Amino acid sequence: MPSPKPLQLEPLTTEISRTPFQNALRRFRRHRSARAGMFVLGILTLAAIFAPLIAPYDPIKPLRDVKRRSSPCIYILGCPGDQSQHIFGTDGNQRDLFSRVVYGARLSLTIGVATVTFAIVIGVVLGALAGYSGGWSDNLIMRIMDVLLAFPSLILAIAIVAVLGPGLANALLAISFVSIPIYARLVRASVLQVKEQDFVSASRALGASPMGILNRHVLPNALTPLIVAATLGIASAILDAAALSFLGLGAAPPTPEWGLMLGEERNSLFNAPHLVFFPGTFIMITVLAFNLLGDGLRDALDPRLAN
Amino acid sequence: MAQFLIRRFLLTLPVLFGITFVTFALARILPGDPCFAALGEKATAQQCEDYNERMGFNDPIMVQFVHYMGDVMQGDFGVSTKDGRTVQQIVIQRLPMTIEIAIGATIFSTTVGILLGMISAVRRNTLLDVGTMIGANIGISMPVFWLGLMLAYLFAIIFKDTPFWLPPSGRLSSGITIAPLAETFNMGELSGSWGVLVDFASHSVLFNALITGNFVVFKDAVRHLILPCIAVGTIPLAIIARMTRSSMLEVLGLDFIRTARAKGLTNNKVIFKHVMRNAMLPIVTIIGLSVGGLLSGAILTETVFALPGMGTQLLSAILSRDYAVVQAFTVIIAVIFVFVNLIVDLSYGFLDPRVRMQ
């Protein structure tokens, strides 16, 4: 049983006036997990941009004089000097796994950002249309969104890929498509919230066009939940894309995609576990970083939700 | 109460309608002529015309949809183009495995998740709480298939020759088999719905072994299910633990909890009778929603552990362009998901009387 807290008086302070943005920035900077997420994402982004400089070998061309699926060999950890150094080992096609993992960061980050951007654009249009027009078009759009949400997202994505045919582009399209309802719902909710407020009526009375009202008043109000949902959405898009590639429905060999790398080598798990361990670890780290960042952004941008 | 149940049930009908419509539409926008997909590239124009007429592809699209809906409601999903069996037979054979994994993973994730969340909330800001929440964050970020592979490596290779050893693949060890229920109980040739039901139950090895008292098979089947269930259940576990913690913390700060403590109730009574009962709604909601991830996870995990369930079948169906199977499996999984969430919604009525009154 916790003892009752002693009565404490708040010290008297004078508030320095800050803009809401400055406040959010302060909260974000103080958020420990958000900082960790930012830090990891920074490193991953740098790795993605400078992949050709970081990767010691070509990610796609098989190397000569290298054994297949050899374990990691690191000089400072006692790897004999007459062998070439492969810090993550080599894969089944005599390629340097570390180089492939570094190039994989490029692909995964692009995949995450691209799919979510596409889904947001469509989601914003649909959500704004539904919320702003109301009536039957609202009903129609939102019932379709309900039906899409009734499928487990990965299952629907798999079904769509089954129809379009396996391939990275189709997988990304499918993942984007199944996440549209999340953003459409968010935007619609904030449109409904803002639509009836006095300042919106005022600007309508002043002759603002619906598009102008949408851009000036509605979307800025929807921005906070959108940013948070997008960050968390990137995390799940990366996971889903890796899952589709793992199943052989996404990226095709020899693309250095983490999920595919894992899927290709899953049968050699028992003699070369490093080939499964490293790509998976990087998927996890990337997804974790986006999740932490998303949590931090939510707490910083929307203090009402923070506990 | 009855009114509440009926109204809630009626609300799912449009969604079920939508699900069948989406899967129908997906199959119709398939690139290529369905005739060539079924009869092969060498089919003549006349053969195609006959085929289209027989399958009803010449009817108006709405007529086709109505026929399709009628078939689906009777459990008729057509014939697999790959091996000529009806899709219904394939589902009867494959679905029990996936359901076993899903139920096992649900039990694992809810019990451990709620327990960890409760401990975290009660011991807030202690090392235990921080550790659990860091673990939960890592848990929701893990790819299911990777976790499955890592568990297989850990328990099959590293724990080899220890009592912790667990089989890395398959449903039963080689040499262990179990007879169908109809054979064990001499039911003869059953037909109709009863036959389907008995057949379905026999393919659930766990259920079959339990009801026939075959504990050798039961134990072996359970040992094969432990790793897949942990792999599938970890993400929901993390989500449930986080939700339990935040939901409990919210209730813990309310006035009536202070009152409950002030009137001298023991800590256990406060936690279980006052806090948990009020914190339960969001937890139950998140459990229902995580069933979607669980079903997707089961599909991924089956491929990792080579289990003969819906997932492995779905994958081979996609690769061999067997669309009848893909379509049927998508509908069935979505319908299961909808019904689980319907049950969750209905449980609100039992958990919180206020919901019933609305």
Keywords:
heterodimer, A: 307 residues, mainly alpha, 11 helices, B: mainly alpha, MetI-like fold, 16 helices
Write the layout of secondary structure elements.
The complex is a heterodimer of chains A (307) and B (358).
Chain A: H1 20-30, H2 32-49, H3 51-54, H4 97-133, H5 135-149, H6 153-164, H7 168-195, H8 198-205, H9 210-246, H10 258-264, H11 274-301
Helix pairs in contact in A: 1-11, 2-4, 2-11, 4-5, 4-7, 4-9, 4-11, 5-7, 6-7, 7-9, 9-10, 9-11, 10-11
Chain B: H1 2-28, H2 34-39, H3 45-55, H4 61-73, H5 87-122, H6 127-140, H7 144-158, H8 181-184, H9 192-203, H10 205-212, H11 215-252, H12 255-262, H13 267-305, H14 310-319, H15 323-351, H16 353-357
Helix pairs in contact in B: 1-4, 1-15, 5-6, 5-9, 5-11, 5-13, 6-11, 7-11, 7-13, 10-11, 11-13, 12-13, 13-14, 13-15, 14-15
Task: Tell me what you see in this structure.
The complex is a heterodimer of chains A (307) and B (358). Chain A contains 11 helices and no strands. Chain A is mainly alpha-helical. In chain A, helix 7 runs antiparallel to helix 9. The longest helix of chain A has 37 residues. Chain A is globular. The model of chain A has no long low-confidence stretch (mean pLDDT 85). Chain B has 358 residues and is mostly helical. Chain B is built from 16 helices and no strands. Chain B is globular and about 85 Å long. The mean pLDDT of chain B is 84. Chains A and B meet through helix 5, helix 6, helix 9, helix 10 and helix 11 of A and helix 1, helix 6, helix 7, helix 11 and helix 13 of B.
